[in-house]
Design a protein that fits this description.
mainly alpha; putative 2-phosphosulfolactate phosphatase; 3-stranded mixed sheet; 5 strands; about 45% helix; about 10% strand; globular
Length: about 180
């Protein structure tokens, strides 16, 4: 089981919030159950979507290419936020995804709301120093205050380095492909 509350591993769980602890050696061939402060709630809200993917900066290109291949008329980009509030790092990721889609689709992309326009502007501002953005965000500061997450920040700030597309295969079940 993987889980965190407020960035800290849940007592009794095998793994916490660190992406570095989720290695092939530890998780290969296993069914994982995950609960997070914000992501779990967000995924539940959209679990009835026809296509549902989980994305971070490291797998942005893989997820974007999957989205492009579907040629869907509408795409919803949803950030988990922090306890019902805005999250800088989620907006950065949304802007990164939107930027990739705009540059790489062979069909017209229309940005339909101000939130995504702002996310694109945020991405254009921070895209050359993603690590600094993650550390500037209140969540980054929160993590820094509870421990040494430097390697996690570096991992999460790497762009387009994973070819994994976590996709919902049945309601509430996400499988990496």
């Amino acid at each position: 089981m993987l889980g965190e509350r407020g960035g800290k591993k849940i007592e009794g769980f095998d793994l916490g919030n660190s992406p570095l602890s989720v290695t092939k050696k530890v998780v290969k061939g296993k069914r994982l159950f995950m609960s997070t402060t914000n992501g779990t709630k967000s995924l539940q809200k959209v679990q009835n979507a026809k296509h549902l993917f989980a994305m971070g900066l490291p797998n942005r290109k893989a997820v974007a290419e999957k989205i492009i291949s579907l040629k869907s008329e509408n795409v919803l980009i949803l950030g988990s936020g922090w306890e019902g509030s805005y999250s800088l790092e989620d907006s950065l990721a949304a802007g990164a995804l939107a930027s990739y889609l705009v540059k790489n689709c062979d069909f017209e992309i229309n940005i339909m709301n101000d939130e995504l326009q702002a996310a694109l502007a945020l991405w254009n501002f921070w895209k050359n120093d993603i690590l600094k953005c993650l550390k500037t965000a209140t969540h980054g500061k929160r993590l820094t205050s509870i421990g040494d997450y430097e390697d996690d920040f570096k991992c999460c700030s790497r762009l387009d380095c994973l070819d994994i597309v976590p996709a919902q295969v049945e309601r509430g079940v996400i499988r990496a492909s």
